[in-house]
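Aim 2 progress update. The chain analyzed this quarter is reproduced below.
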Amino acid sequence: MLKVGLTGGIGSGKSTASQHFGLLGAYVLDADEEAKNLITTNETVQHELISEFGTDIIDGTGRVDKKKLARIVFQDEDHQQRLNSVVHPYIYDLIDKEFNRVLEKGKHGIFIVDAALIFESGYDAHLDYVIVVTAQLKHRMERAMGRKTLSREEILKRIEFQWPEEEKVNIADFVVHNDGTEKELQKNIESLIEKLT
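Predicted structure tokens:
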């Protein structure tokens, strides 16, 4: 079973691409979603985050509040790295366990690790291939704004903390350009699966 990373900047269409991979028979692990779950459900991770960032990140029940944490973490690169140094080891462990579990079942030919920070975290070294989903900045902004979860400033700040798109494209094994329709994206993914299998 191939272990393939799927990454792309905010609004690139990475999540839509990962859904298509799932529909076409790949096993998809959403590492960013798993990271959010860890932050809210894993007590060890919560304690480590509180000792790293202080009590400003906790809610009325003494648990980590993801919104408060995000406000602190997205201030600058140093805060972002401190968060990643706490969370990434747990995520790596989780990915490995899930990969072995899926491998044992033998039902899938491709295991997709869907994560925003594959290159930034150095996790690309643990993968057979890395696919980058890319789109023009205007399309990325439109999509990200369309979700209505972040302001324009917050989106630009998050883009700032990720590696530049062209850098990722240059070191990716495969690149999916997503400036067209979802149907075109699906076709691109179908032909990519053919290349991988």
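The first strand starts at residue 2 and ends at 7. DSSP finds nine helices and five strands in the chain. These observations will guide the mutagenesis experiments scheduled for the next reporting period.
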